[in-house]
Amino acid sequence: MNSSLVPASKLVKEPYSLILGYPKATKGELVKRHAELKKLGITGVSFQGETTLNNISVLGKGYVGVVVLSRLGKKDVALKIRRIDSSRQEMKSEAKLLGIANKSGVGPKLVDSSKNFLIMEYVEGKKITDWVKDLRGRGSAAKLKSVVRQVLEDCHTLDTIHLDHGELSYIHKHVIVGKSPCIIDFESSSTNRRTSNVTSATQSIFIGSALSSIVKNIIKIPNKKKMIGPLKKYKHDQSRENFDAILKMLGLDKS
After folding, report:
1. What is the DSSP annotation of 54-89?
2. CA-to-CA distance for 216 and 205, rounded, in angstroms?
3. Run of H or E including 255
4. Cα–Cα distance measured from residue 66 to residue 205, given in angstroms and rounded to the nearest whole number
5. Whose CA is closest to 118, among 151, 77, 73?
6. Separation CA 154–CA 237 (nearest Å)
7. Nearest Cα to Cα of residue 65 among 104, 44, 91
8. How far is Cα 70 from Cα 219, in angstroms, rounded to an integer?
């Protein structure tokens, strides 16, 4: 993290109070949140990222919270701050779901959580669409296949543990590619509905999306009709055998 680190004590004052209590918090709420951050051990925030809120850079913004790059001890972490206007009353439930994913090796590692905050491993990299756009030269097809295969493997793992991510139809927002690909943002996840991680991700990567139009310029994509059969079969029976059939159909098997 660079020298733009803003001490946590300054987050209660403008312009940073906008982020601590987005979109608008009372002074009392800001003071409570600062105390909560202090208890968690967050010492500062570095405002950087591609998303901006009133000219302040952040890593991301969703319906539940705002994510910023923060400092915990000597480590950089991703800090998710619950929005004041969020329908969720706390962050512990999301932390529990991320913890379930972590047990199977999926998602950014959960570090800590409280009522208004979720602290996770900071995954450095690019959103999958930007990563694919930047692929150049020899070996790009092999790299792309490797990354997509790993994403789908993680999706199959989530299906196996009955955790539905809920937003993988919009995979361009929910996969970061760094040293390896990582599925992020489990705020819409559930263990109480039928899982559709593999099918949603496959459709998002290969069928009728901005990402699929880039992917097909790098690797050969089967036509939609050829994809429907294996995807339907997997939807009814999410076995390893049916998943392997999807990988083979997509040309992602290791043979």
Report:
1. TTEEESEE-SSEEEEEEEETTEEEEEEEE-TT-S-S
2. 10
3. none
4. 26
5. 77
6. 17
7. 91
8. 38
Copy the structure tokens of residue 101: 């994913």
Which of 53, 31, 33, 50 shows the shortest CA–CA distance to 42? 33
133: number of CA atoms within 13 Å, CB side?
Answer: 8
d(CA 196, CA 54): 36
Backbone dihedral region for residue 46 (phi beyond 0: left; psi -120 to 50: alpha; all else: beta): beta
- Token pair 């991301």 is found at 60
Write the CB contacts of 191 (distance below 8 Å, at least 6 apart in sequence). Answer: 97, 100, 162, 163, 164
Full set of structural domains in the chain with CATH: 5-90+109-121 (no CATH), 126-250 (1.10.510)
pTM (whole model) above 0.85:
yes
Peptide bond just before 7 cis, omega within 30 deg: no
Q: pLDDT tens across 90-122, in order?
A: 999 999 999 999 999 999 999 999 999 999 999
Altogether, the residues listed in the chain come to a count of 255
